[in-house]
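We emphasize that the prediction below concerns an isolated chain of 200 residues; any contacts that depend on oligomerization or on bound cofactors are therefore not represented. The input was used exactly as deposited, without trimming of termini.
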Amino acid sequence: MMTTAPDEKVLLDHRGSRRPTFDIPLDYEQARLGMAFHEAGHAVVAISYGVHVKTSEVIAWSTGSDGYALTGNTSFQSDDVSPWHFAAQCAAGEIAHVQYLMAYGLWTPERAAACAADHDRDQAIDVLIQFGYCLGRDHVPAGGKSWGQVRGMARRRVGLLWREIRAVAHAMNEQTKLTGEQIAAMTGLVNAPLPEGVAA
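Result of the prediction step, given as a C-alpha cell string:
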C-alpha cells in the first residue's frame, strides 16, 4: 500500500471526474482482494470478448490513522468489439466483486450495495451513445438494452470464467498490477493484438 494518494490523474475516470473509492466494511486485506476481483472481472471478461487489455491494477493508499482508500483501473483498447460485449465487460467488475463476497463468506446486503460501480455503467452508456446504441439505466429503450440486461450478460460470463477471474484476482492482489499479456498467459485466453498505429 502506498503511503500517500497516487497522482490525481490516475484517479480520474473517463469523464475526468475523480474515480470513486469504495467504502466496504471489511478489513484491508479482504477489501483489497475484493478490488482485485473487481478489476479481474473487467480484465478477464474483456479479453474473452476480444478487447485488448493493456494493464489491470489495484490502487491502494493510506489515509492516516489506520485508514486506507482503494480503487482500481483496467486499461484497454476496444476497437472492433461488439458494443454489448463492451458494456458487459463494464458490468463484469461489480458482478465479480459481489461474487467474491459470496464465494468467500463475506456477503451482506450492506457490503454488496457498496460494490455498486455507477462509473462503470456510465462509461458503458457514454461509449455506446457514441456509436448510436441505447443503453438505459433503469428501462429498456427502443432498439436498445437496459443496464439490467447487460448485467445479466456479465453475470453469465463471470460464471463461465470464474476460475480464470479468481486466478487473476489473487495474482493481482499479490503483484498489484498485471499486464494483459500476463493475464492471458495465466488464463489461457488470447489478448487481442493492438490495432496497427495504436500506441501500447
